[in-house]
Amino acid sequence: MMQIFNTFKISASGLTGEKLRMDTIASNIANATTTRTEEGGPYRRKIAVFRENLEKEINRSSKRSEIVSKGVKVDSIIEDDTPFKLAYDPTHPDANEEGYVEMPNVNIMNEMVDMIAATRAYEANVTALNATKAMFLKALEIGR
Fold first, then answer.
1. 42-55 as b/e, with b when 16 or more CB fall inside 10 Å?
2. Rounded to 5 degrees, what angle do the CA atoms 65, 69, 6 make?
3. Percent share of the chain, pLDDT over 70
4. 125 with 11: CB under 8 angstroms?
5. d(CA 66, CA 30)
């Protein structure tokens, strides 16, 4: 019985992680032309980094502790250190003396590919969650 709840927790952690990943990508897309931030300089692309969530559990039958996966968790949100792009626009208020503006290191095409991957991962977690729920309901029907 406890294993089925672990499956729910693992799928839920994946849903939460992928939602945060999609939010991060949306922020990158929204700031693709932001040349001025509070930290100074253009916006720097953000990347959500996940880590496997491992926990120690005691196996009831063998009385031994074992490490089991509890899904994923967000380890951190890091800034992409690729260099900024330079765009020639002498009329821009942030242009340097040669007329170039430092633009964010956000590539819209890469962000869209990442968004599709995050969406597919989210959908896969929903499918796993629904399959687990269906199996659980079938098991309850057998008990009737």
1. bbbbbebebeebee
2. 95
3. 94
4. yes
5. 44
Residue 1, pLDDT > 50, answer no
- Other CB atoms within 10 A of residue 11 CB: 21
Taking alpha carbons only, the member of 48, 34, 37 closest to residue 121 is 48
Residue pointed to by tokens 């590919």 = 113
CA dihedral 31, 37, 39, 44 (to 10 degrees): 20
The rounded distance, in Å, linking the Cα atoms of 7 and 14 is 11
Query: Could you tell me where the beta strands, DSSP code E, fall in the chain?
Result: 46-58, 65-79, 85-88, 100-103
d(CA 87, CA 85) in angstroms, rounded, equals 6
Distance CA 117, CA 110 (A): 11
Q: Is the pLDDT of residue 66 over 80?
A: no
Per-residue pLDDT for 109 more than 80? yes
3 state SS of 37: coil
Q: How far is 6 from 25, CA to CA, in rounded Å?
A: 29
Tokens of 59: 């196996």
Start-to-end CA span in the chain (Å): 17
Q: What is the mean pLDDT of residues 51-67?
A: 77
